[in-house]
Amino acid sequence: MSRPDAWAPAQYERFREERAQPFYDLMRMVKVASPQTAVDLGCGTGELTAVLHRHVRATSTIGVDSSEAMLERARALGIHSLQFVNADIAEWWPPAPLDLIFSNAALHWVPDHVTLFGRLREMLRPEGELAVQMPANFDHISHIVATEVARESPFSDALGGYVRVAPVLAPEAYALLLHSLGFAAQDVRLQVYAHTLESTAAVVEWVKGSLLTDYAVRMPDALYTQFVEQYRARLLEVLGDQRPYFYAFKRILIWARTPS
Ligand SMILES: C[S@@+](CC[C@H](N)C(=O)[O-])C[C@H]1O[C@@H](n2cnc3c(N)ncnc32)[C@H](O)[C@@H]1O
Asked: Which value, in Å, is the radius of gyration of the alpha carbons in the chain?
């Protein structure tokens, strides 16, 4: 089942440059040239899907996303060799085996990575490539504070006790998983991205475009506004009003290739 749609393209794109950097780093890890079919899982607004499509010189690329708001923007690109599909990554299956599965900043929304990566492995042709980038920042204070606020009243009642627990594994667990799934080559990296934001409060705008969407879909608008205000107050209390604020953001980058 798809998640309810809390993705707001404009909010997500407020940190477009910072968020694009890991995409370019991941794209540079891809080795396959001129794949017949590539897929971009969690393609969002599709702009980066188009960059990937041109960079690898794919014959056709499918963008998969469960947010209609994001897909509307993607379809408006009007590139005929790009096809956009509204589907849940956990359930989508390609029409034919794939040469390249690419996913930037999306798989951390999909549960059970052992099952997920097993499915992705099955979708690939011989010498097919998998390239995945996900945040691994869930132990950062910006995320810890969100969990703390979600556990407090009145939010915990509205959330029915739900708090976001990311399914992202340790880098070495992915290395082991890729090996056990029979990938013939792999490269797993943990990278810290150094973002200098205008102020501590800018972190609130950052997480509103990502982490907090998971809480936004689970409570009425007025309560969510209150949640964000409480989050902002707590974060400023813990970190102080730093100007600028240095946001050290961990991400995992994964590349792997199936045997010939
Ligand atoms: C952080 S955005 C990344 C978008 C794009 N890949 C980029 O790099 O700009 C995450 C995207 O994943 C999509 N997404 C999250 N969970 C999903 C799921 N289970 N199935 C399909 N799409 C999902 C969201 O709708 C959103 O567009």
From this structure: 19
The pair of structure tokens assigned to 80 is: 């005929």
Is pLDDT at 14 greater than 80 in this prediction?
A: no
Q: Give, for ligand 1, the residue of 103, 109, 208 to mutate: max count of ligand atoms closer than 8 Å to Cβ.
A: 109
70 CA closest ligand 1 atom index: 27
Protein residues whose CB sits closer than 6 Å to any atom of ligand 1: 3, 7, 23, 42-44, 48, 64-67, 70, 88-90, 104-106, 109-110, 210
Q: What is the reported pTM?
A: 0.94
46-94 pLDDT, tens per residue? 999 999 999 999 999 999 999 999 999 999 999 999 999 999 999 999 9
The pLDDT value recorded for residue 1 is 33
- Ligand 1: residue of 65, 113, 217 to mutate (most ligand atoms within 8 A of CB) is 65
Q: Which CATH number among 1.10.10.10, 3.40.50.150, 2.40.50.140, 3.90.76.10 corresponds to the domain 9-257?
A: 3.40.50.150
